[in-house]
Amino acid sequence: MLFPKNKLVPVKYIIDTNDFPKGIYSNIKEYNNVKQLGCPAVSSTSKKLFYVNSPISFKLEFGLKDNEPYYHYEFDTKVHKEVEKVHNILQKNLELQYSNNVMSIQLLTPYVFITDTKDVSVMTVPPPLNYNNCSYVSGELYIKDWVRHLNVALVLLDNSKPATVELSVDVPMLMFAFNKQIHLQYTEMTDKVYKYQKQITGIVNYRKGIMNLYEDIKSRRPKKLL
Questions:
Q1: Is 4 a domain residue?
Q2: Assigned domain for 116 exists
Q3: What are 3-24's pLDDT values in tens digits?
Q4: Residue 222 falls inside a structural domain
Q5: CA 67 from chain center: how many Å?
Q6: Residue 93: which of 79, 75, 78 has the closest Cα?
Q7: pTM higher than 0.85 for the full model?
Q8: In sequence order, what E strands does the chain have?
């Protein structure tokens, strides 16, 4: 088949947070890929490309000072109230990493994809953000057996200079490319999903070579999560 097409695969997403109002996190929406062009190559991307905007409009600077990682942000007070609660969201969800002379930062998000169909992968691809001296880090995983949050990740390019990036409630912070056409719906967290997700959450902080743990974790997955 020259232009891939499949029966829509059911996929749901969860906004997995109890720390902040879920209403500040926007819905995941399908990316409009100009289907009106009538090109079959363009049409084959239908129901594969999705995006979600940032919950906070802010300017972020990060880098190294005296060989120590740091970040600084300013959020848009035309959009957000000047209160500690907004600072709490950013401070809890911005995470610096500095290892082997590579400096990176993540903006943690509460978005989790769930499916019971095997061989469905999602890739994060660079969104249309305003970057300076940093690069967006893409990633891909199969979502049936590995239930985890997908985050914004940026790496510093030149350690001698700071990096800046601007995020906005009106601009995608994450763009998702699925390997199959999907039917995407929002759902609430369930006890089954929560218990299985606890097998995985934060596991990279404890072990190297997590693929050695994959079969044991997968064996604990309920037959159905949706």
A1: no
A2: yes
A3: 778 899 999 999 999 889 999 9
A4: no
A5: 28
A6: 75
A7: yes
A8: 9-15, 29-30, 49-53, 58-65, 68-75, 94-99, 102-107, 111-114, 121-125, 130-132, 134-136, 139-142, 152-156, 163-167, 172-178, 182-186
Give Cα separations from 33 to 45, 70, 174, 203 (angstroms): 8, 38, 16, 36
Comparing CA positions, the residue from 46, 41, 53, 42 lying closest to residue 178 is: 46
Model confidence pLDDT, tens digit, residues 123-178:
999 999 999 999 999 999 999 999 999 999 999 999 999 999 999 999 999 999 99
- Asked if residue 197 is part of any domain, the answer here is no
Q: Tokens 């509460």 label which residue?
A: 110
List Cβ neighbours of 92 (8 Å cut-off, separation of 6 or more).
Answer: 19, 108
Among residues 117, 139, 112, which one has the least CA distance to residue 194?
112
Would the pLDDT of 205 be above 80?
A: yes
- How far apart CA 205 and CA 163 sit, in angstroms, is 25
* Count of CB atoms situated within 10 Å of the CB of 130: 11
d(CA 118, CA 113): 13
Domain region containing 25: 9-188
Please give the single-letter amino acid code of residue 116. Answer: D
Phi and psi torsions of 73, nearest 5°: -135, 160
Paired tokens of 76: 């848009």
What does the pLDDT average to over 69-83?
96
Total number of domains in the chain: 1
pLDDT at 155: 98
Q: Is 191 helix (H, G, I), strand (E, B) or coil?
A: helix
Sequence letter at residue 213 = L
